[in-house]
């Protein structure tokens, strides 16, 4: 029995290393670690996000690690969802780029509440983040714009995001025009348009989800609002002031 246990634990650690997930003695038969409150490296949701994100970044390609589903709701209650690319994040929130006149841009102008979903199937993990979206200052938006390759800046100008166009050739023709302008005028021809900018989602809620094969998934949440529950013992203090920690049923 001792030999079998040693072999099992050895395989568990190998599987955990291959996914870049810390091994945990409390795990199921398929080597998916349970997400236990006492085993968390931190009870600060921003720091825990960074821990999970760094584990993913070490393994996955850039766009797979940084692609995030972003959901908005119009003033009349109609939701819409799309994938965006996370540009950066810190304790202020999650930054991405958009055209202010796009569908998401106009919806956010009327209703700044939004949600992000990071899903990493190789890790059987997802993180939900909900909060309010603000525009970054113009100088920060310009810095984000200038950090993009010139070809991406040209594409950003050529495509009036979310507007109706006749065909693909329309975009390609506009792109060639702008490439010629950059050739003759320099990169000034690819300056940031006033309709383009950087947005930041400032979180009010995090949910860390660890998938399990038997459907008893782990869901540990952090919120600035105390959940409505009959038992105060179910809500725990977070390491971040003003935030509450609790578990949801799968």
Observed structural traits:
ten-stranded antiparallel sheet; disordered N terminus; 250 residues; elongated
State the secondary-structure class.
Answer: alpha+beta
Q: How would you sum up the major sheet? A: 10 strands, antiparallel
The helix/strand series, from N terminus to C terminus, equals HHHEEEEHEEHHHEEEE
Shape: elongated
Which regions are unreliable across 5 or more consecutive residues at pLDDT < 50?
A: 1-20, 22-29
- The gyration radius over C-alpha positions equals 22 Å
Domain Pyridoxine 5'-phosphate oxidase dimerisation C-terminal: 196-249
Subunit structure: Homodimer.
Function: Catalyzes the oxidation of either pyridoxine 5'-phosphate (PNP) or pyridoxamine 5'-phosphate (PMP) into pyridoxal 5'-phosphate (PLP).
EC number: 1.4.3.5
């Amino acid at each position: 029995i001792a030999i079998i246990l040693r072999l099992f634990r050895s395989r568990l650690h190998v599987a955990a290393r291959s996914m870049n997930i810390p091994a945990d003695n409390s795990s199921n038969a398929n080597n998916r670690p349970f997400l236990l409150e006492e085993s968390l490296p931190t009870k600060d949701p921003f720091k825990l996000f960074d821990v999970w994100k760094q584990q993913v970044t070490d393994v996955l390609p850039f766009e797979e690690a940084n692609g995030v589903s972003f959901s908005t709701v119009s003033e009349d209650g109609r939701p819409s969802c799309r994938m965006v690319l996370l540009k950066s994040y810190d304790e202020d929130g999650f930054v991405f780029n958009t055209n202010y006149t796009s569908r998401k841009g106009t919806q956010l102008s009327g209703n700044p509440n939004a949600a992000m979903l990071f899903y990493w199937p190789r890790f059987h993990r997802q993180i939900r983040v909900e909060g309010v979206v603000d525009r970054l200052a113009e100088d920060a938006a310009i810095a984000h714009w200038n950090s993009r390759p010139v070809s991406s800046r040209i594409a950003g100008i050529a495509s009036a995001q979310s507007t109706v166009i006749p065909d693909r050739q329309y975009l390609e023709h506009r792109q060639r025009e702008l490439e010629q302008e950059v050739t003759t005028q320099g990169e000034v021809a690819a300056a940031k348009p006033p309709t383009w900018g950087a947005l930041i989602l400032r979180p009010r809620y995090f949910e860390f989800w660890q998938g399990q094969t038997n459907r008893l998934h782990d869901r540990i949440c952090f919120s600035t609002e105390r959940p409505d529950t009959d038992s105060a013992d179910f809500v725990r203090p977070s390491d971040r002031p003003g935030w509450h920690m609790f578990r949801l049923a799968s």
